[in-house]
Design a protein that fits this description.
Layout (H helix, E strand, L loop, with lengths): L3 E11 L3 H10 L6 E5 L1 E3 L2 E3 L8 E8 L1 H14 L6 E10 L6
Antiparallel strand pairs: 1-5, 1-6, 2-5, 3-4
Length: 100
């Protein structure tokens, strides 16, 4: 089976900005995304999701390298200074290249 290289862009951020982040990612070239509610902790403390303002979301976007870097650069500049946000990239291989 033929495989195609892509990037997995993962964004963990505050649920309050999920819609804006998704709109920006789509505008910048993402064909789709997957969102999940998550909990965790780090340098900025714990985010347990016990109340609305404390909820976090994980967004996964599979796309080409240029698109992933463009989205990451925008999100880090526009949101990271004001909201809890973690962003990373990983190499992945997909089977249906036309979807990504």
């Amino acid at each position: 089976m033929e495989k195609h290289p892509r990037k997995l862009l993962v964004v963990i951020t505050e649920a309050a900005i999920e819609k804006a982040v998704v709109q920006d990612a789509r505008r910048l070239g993402a064909h789709g995304y997957t969102a999940s509610a998550v909990r965790g902790g780090g340098l900025q403390g714990e985010r347990e999701g016990a109340w609305e303002a404390d909820r976090s979301v994980e967004l996964k976007i599979v796309c080409g390298r240029d698109t992933a870097e463009r989205i990451a650069e925008h999100l880090l500049a526009a949101y990271a200074p004001h909201y809890a946000m973690t962003v990373w990239l990983a190499d992945v291989q997909v089977f249906r290249a036309e979807k990504f």
